[in-house]
Amino acid sequence: MNLYPWQQNEWQQLRNYVVQNRVPQALLINGALGIGKQHLAEQFAHALLCECPTSDGFNCGECSSCLLIKVDTHPDFMDVQPEEVGKNITIAQIRTLIEKLSLKPQFERYRVILIHPADALNNAAANAFLKYLEEPTERTVVCLVTHRMNKLPATIKSRCQKLTVTMPNKNLVLQWLSQQTNNAEVVLNLAQGSPLLAQQYATDEHLTQRRDCFNAWLSIAKQQSHPIIVAEQWLKLPETTLLFWLSSWVIDLMRYRHQSAPKNLYHADLNRELSSLAQHVNPIKLYEFYDLLLLSRRRLETQINKQVLWEEILIAWAMLNRS
């Protein structure tokens, strides 16, 4: 068995599909980012391809199919994902896939297609794939994985059986994380409860980088650093991560401003600095600044000049703290 400890319920549901001989031709696995959806889909795919699955429904790891899976050469397992990180799945990829699916499976069990993230299908690719879903081929199971259901066309969603993976129990995740880091609670708060994101955040480099950015943000509030200089330094950092830090610092400030003993803080380890800052910030202007951050999140998906983006945000932050 090779599941994360919080995936037992979802695995039982997948197992029931097999036991009841009702394996869906198209399965859409959805849920928050960083909770192991792709890993779950891969385990299901391996089990469907295995010639001698275990009594718990897992692949045996020893049959010829399992050996082919281990070296990524199983002819009946196709993994479709963007050719470059952050790019779309193209119509050319889907056409190549459909051409392969026109042939019969080479083994006697299932043929499995894993598409992730499914929301990366561009419009042309999604339309081409929809035509396949309307007339699927024999003994073929398609697993689509996404954390952005709203990005998928309704026509594709309507043709899939859905498995929603819920956020795992916090105590269970903390127990798992504590075996890997001494900062389990800190990183899990940063990851908004997503265990695999928290695992990534557990590195000393990530936490140090967050602290350095927070110190720079504070120094702008105290008029000790120039926004444009800090904006230039921030160009080297991951944009979405940095924007999340900014947004979550502001949310924590709002909580400190309106609650005597705030709970569910993103950055409880920064409580001293945040609680002090909250006493002096104008709440109305803080909400306006948060609106700017939300707008900036959408702008990141455009061709906006990132230097200008960070300058606008940090200048607004500096002005807010002068009032």
Q: What characteristics describe this protein?
A:
alpha/beta, Rossmann fold, 5-stranded parallel beta sheet
Tell me what you see in this structure:
The chain folds into 2 domains: 8-166, 3-Layer(aba) Sandwich (Rossmann fold), CATH 3.40.50; 203-320, Zinc Finger, Delta Prime, domain 3 (Up-down Bundle). 52% of the residues lie in helices and 8% in strands. It has helices at 8-19, 37-49, 64-70, 91-101, 123-134, 154-157, 170-178, 184-190, 195-201, 204-221, 227-234, 239-258, 271-278, 283-299, 306-320; strands at 26-31, 77-80, 111-115, 140-146, 161-165. Strands 2-3-4-1-5 form a 5-stranded parallel sheet, sandwiched between helices. The model has no long low-confidence stretch (mean pLDDT 92). The longest helix has 20 residues, at 239-258. With 323 residues, it is of the alpha/beta class. The protein has 15 helices and 5 strands.
Topology (elements, then pairings):
Blueprint: H1 8-19, E1 26-31, H2 37-49, H3 64-70, E2 77-80, H4 91-101, E3 111-115, H5 123-134, E4 140-146, H6 154-157, E5 161-165, H7 170-178, H8 184-190, H9 195-201, H10 204-221, H11 227-234, H12 239-258, H13 271-278, H14 283-299, H15 306-320
Parallel strand pairs: 1-4, 1-5, 2-3, 3-4
